Amino acid sequence: MSKQAFQLEEVVENSKCMAASYRVPSVVMMKGEGSYLWDLDNKKYIDFFAGIAVNSLGHCDPEVTQIIREQAGVLLHSSFACPTAWPYALAAKLVEKTKESGGMYNASNVFFSNSGAEANEAALKFARKWGKSISENKFEIICFSTSFHGRTFGALSVTSKLKYQEPFTPLVPGVKQAQIGDIESVRRLISERTCAVIIEPVQGEGGVRPVDIDFLVQLKGLCKKYQAALIYDEVQVGVGRSGTLWAHSKLPKEGHPDIFTSAKALANGCPIGATIISPEINQVLESADHGSTFGGNPISARVACHVLDRISNKQFLEEVQRKASLLHSKLLQLQVKYPDIVKDVRGSGLMMGMELSVEAKPVIAKAKELGLVTTVVGDHVVRLLPALNIPDDVLVQGVIILENTLDELFGNNRSA
User: Fold this and answer.
1) CA atoms of 196 and 378, how far apart (whole Å)
2) 416 lies in a domain?
3) Alpha-carbon distances of 330 from 129, 222, 352, 356, rounded to whole Å
4) Helices 314-337 & 392-410, crossing angle to 10 degrees?
């Protein structure tokens, strides 16, 4: 039987065998339930991070746990060489629920992988093959400032942060970078050589910034004019986090993508990635153009079917929107109390960012000390990603801990 009990010192010692790209842990979690986590010392935390927007139904959801238990006792893995029924059921459900939600009107086919970066890699490959079916010179890709699409070579090539890119250059050629929200910057770059434009409808690592709807509609217009595939990366903001099933569900048909990607929350913690494509993209693909050993495994696919059914429910999404309004209002109260510290509160649904005039890392460190788990993006933004079904009282208590954090750190720096 595998070991169940650890001491922090033992974990720190074991961490010496981890690759240096991982930090030595200062806190190690032991268990979770709903919107709470407990560390090895049994200290309890409110979770405003949800495993980086993954555990949207909370930790150890009873229905999800039961599905995993049942499927693990039936068949754990067989691959698409000997497929199970679950990935096919999930593909049909993704297409159906996407259209019902007001999302990508011509969604037709799905490729499964294991993560958001892998889903984006598939999207870039599919777009390039589609582009080359039109012209051998149609291979360029446009991405945007303050974007993040993953750390694999293709995904990293369309991620704007030089800190992530520089140690691994040269990257995938043919990538150009436009300015987010500046349609003229796109016009200067797009051409008959462009096969794809990739963008997050709400930027996550870029500071929790929703992209203007008019800009996205204009972007689709340019893509249509130059026969470039528009790719929406919905890895972080998708599956209900924005208050609609997909962030682009809020857009008119004229702003819909040709490809969009999902991962993170799709199976509430079971590894999965999905790349959803239009018929035009699908028709150029052939057997073995891309693959994934674990993609569409029966546990992740079966859990994802359940997650989609629950989160796409109209009443569930209305509750997400209501909770988002509650969180936003409470954060605005913090801004009123600390106007010199809290510069901005922004986001979409239960993907919120609180921009500070000071470094955010000491703030999240103090918040963790007081019992709230969250994280920072950039240098100054506290990112808040609670479970979509977090109880109201827990949501409010989490903001109270944030307020206590600001009180302890900046109590003498309030604006008069």
Assistant:
1) 27
2) no
3) 47, 39, 12, 16
4) 20
Is-contact 147 158, C-beta < 8 A?
A: yes
d(CA 299, CA 312): 20
- Are 382 and 365 in contact, with CB atoms under 8 Å apart? no
Q: CB of 174 within 8 A of CB of 157?
A: no
157 and 263, same domain (yes or no)? yes
Residue 342, amino acid = V
DSSP label of 59: B
- Which residue, among 186, 128, 119, 189, has the nearest Cα to 155 in the 3D structure? 119
Instruction: Please state, in angstroms and rounded to a whole number, the distance separating the CA atoms of residues 398 and 287.
Output: 49
CA 116 to chain centre: 7
pTM over 0.90: yes
In a domain, 65, yes or no: no
Name the 3-class secondary structure at 339: coil
**What angle (nearest 5°) sits at the alpha carbon of residue 27, between those of residues 24 and 33?**
135
Query: Is residue 278 located within the same domain as residue 326?
Result: no
Report the distance separating Cα 344 and Cα 378, nearest Å: 14
Asked if residue 1 belongs to a domain, the reply is no
- Residue 28, token pair as written in the block: 């190690």
363-413 residue pLDDT tens:
999 999 999 999 999 899 999 999 999 999 999 999 999 999 999 999 866
- Residues shown for the chain: 416
Q: Which strand (E) or helix (H) includes residue 78?
A: none
SS3 category, 265: helix
**DSSP per-residue letters across 302-343:** HHHHHHHHHHTSHHHHHHHHHHHHHHHHHHHHHHHH-TTTEE
Is 230 within 8 Å of 197 (Cβ atoms)?
Answer: yes
Q: What distance in Å separates the CA atoms of residue 371 and residue 47, rounded to the nearest whole number? A: 9
